[in-house]
Amino acid sequence: MAGKGAVLASRILGELSALGLVVGRVESGWKAAVRNDDELYYDSVALNIHSFYSGLERVFEKISSVVDDALPQGINWHQELLSQMALEIPNIRPAVISDKTRALLEPYRGFRHVVRNVYTYKIMPEKMKPLAKGIRPLFKQVEKELTGFSRFIQDK
Fold first, then answer.
1. The whole model's pTM is what?
2. DSSP codes joined into one string, the chain
3. Residues 112-152: tens digit of each pLDDT
C-alpha cells in the first residue's frame, strides 16, 4: 500500500486543512449570528457545520474503501461508517478515531442529516449552539487523530 498510503495521507491532510477553514467560518458565523440576531447568519452556520461533517465523512469513506476495502452499505451506512472508523481492524489498521471522538462526532453526523432533509429556516439556533461552540476542540482532536493515522498509512 506504499503508493496508495502516501496518496491517501496527502488527501487526508488536504481535507484537514480545508476543515480548519470551515471551523473558522462556523465560529465567525456564529458570532455574527448572535451579535446581529440574523437568521441568514444562522443558515450559514448550519451549512458550515454540515460541511464540517461532510468533509470528515469523505475522509472516512476514502479510508474505508482504500484501507479497509469495506465501505458500509444500507440505510444506516453513515452511522456504520462512523462506527467503523473507531474500530481497530487486526492486521490491517489501528482505529482511525477514538471512541470518545466517535461519540463527539455523532451529533454532527445527525445534524448533517437534518440539514440535508429540512429547510434551514426550521433549524433552531439553540440546536446549533453546542455544535458551533464545540467544533474547535473537536476539530483539534480529530486533526490529531487523523494526522497520526496519516503517518501510519504513509509508513506502510
1. 0.93
2. -HHHHHHHHHHHHHHHHHHHHHHHHHHHHHHHHHHHT-HHHHHHHHHHHHHHHHHHHHHHHHHIIIIIS----STTHHHHHHHHHTS-BTTTB--SS-HHHHHHHHHHHHHHHHHHHS-GGGS-HHHHHHHHHHHHHHHHHHHHHHHHHHHHHHH-
3. 988 888 877 788 899 899 999 999 999 999 999 999 999 99
